[in-house]
Design goal:
Shape: globular
Strand content: 5-15%
Distance between the termini: 28 Å
CATH topology: Rossmann fold
CATH superfamily: NAD(P)-binding Rossmann-like Domain
CATH class: Alpha Beta
CATH architecture: 3-Layer(aba) Sandwich
Number of domains: 1
Structural class: alpha/beta
Largest sheet: 7 strands, parallel
Strand order of the largest sheet: 3-2-1-4-5-6-7
Radius of gyration: 18 Å
Order of helices and strands: EHEHEHEHEHHEHHE
Length: about 290
């Protein structure tokens, strides 16, 4: 039986909605991303990773898990400074380095600053985790503006595409790229059409880039989480819907970041040395046939 907390278990019995971007330090209950007794085995010892959107949620859980496995991490985030400092603290508790950089990856100048910082601090990148993203609930397809469409693609896809291009010179044989897509790329979502479209693009990007980089010995895979309790959720959905979040899965609950992070560890490590162009599905038991 799962012991993971669910969103309706907040101190006053009611999850709280937030404005975007969401803050993990203001969530009730807090996501579970670093508390679990994770048994590390040195799978990433001596490696350096860049993790976008690593200040909270899945990104933070991945950063901490990577650090426990022996990796130094560079974490990018938008503006959630308190959350980012907590990620830094948790990583440093493991004895690994954590480098933070704030800014919008949709800004080409900032994107290149991230690459230069990785070059300066690490001299190489062994693992790139493209995780940063945003979503906006819209009641009708017609209400999605061109501005929102372009913004969502800029954050979720174009920035990932360009960062991967710019960071590749720092990667060599044995390196790994792991992209965050979503169950919505497979099931769709009538209120997240632009977001779902970006995540479908991430799947195609993953499959295509994996074949392109195979001869260079660089693997490219993705993780497609289902409903995971992260700051993106209370900053996206109306408060009255939060208590039922994730209840429509076969497991009848949302997942927690610490239930997703091991997928990233596997794909980043040598355990996945014969795996590329694939997508893992930590989604509460939903069958996606993809």
């Amino acid at each position: 039986m799962s012991t993971h907390r669910t969103p309706q278990a907040s101190d006053d019995g009611k999850p709280r909605q937030q404005a975007q971007p969401g803050r993990q330090d203001r969530m009730a209950p807090r996501p579970e991303g670093e508390e679990r007794n994770y048994l590390a085995a040195g799978k990433l010892r001596g490696r350096c990773a860049v993790i976008t959107g690593g200040d909270s949620g899945i990104g933070r859980a991945v950063a901490v898990a990577f650090a426990k496995e022996g990796a130094d991490v560079l974490v990018t985030y938008l503006e959630e400074h308190e959350d980012a400092r907590e990620t830094e603290r948790l990583v440093r508790e493991t004895g690994q380095r954590c480098v933070l950089i704030a800014g919008d990856l949709g800004d080409e100048a900032h994107l290149k600053q991230v690459v230069e910082l990785a070059r300066k601090e690490f001299g190489k990148v062994d693992v790139l985790v493209n995780n940063a993203g945003e979503q906006h609930v819209m009641e009708s397809f017609e209400s999605i503006t061109r501005q929102q469409l372009e913004r969502t693609f800029r954050t979720n896809f174009f920035a990932m595409f360009r960062l991967t291009q710019e960071i590749l010179p720092l990667m060599s044989e044995g390196a790994s790229i792991v992209n965050t897509t979503s169950v919505t790329a497979y099931h769709g979502n009538p209120k997240l059409i632009d977001y779902s479209s970006t995540k479908g693009a991430v799947v195609s990007f993953t499959r295509s880039l994996s074949t392109s980089l195979a001869e260079r010995g660089i693997r490219v895979n993705a993780v497609a989480p289902g409903p995971i309790w992260t700051p993106l959720i209370p900053s996206t959905f109306p408060e009255e819907s939060l208590a039922s979040f994730g209840k429509n899965t076969p497991m009848q609950r949302p997942g927690q970041p610490d239930e997703v992070a091991p997928c990233f560890v596997f794909l980043a490590s040598d355990d996945a040395s014969y795996t590329s162009g694939q997508v893992m599905h930590p989604n509460g038991g939903q069958i996606v046939n993809g």
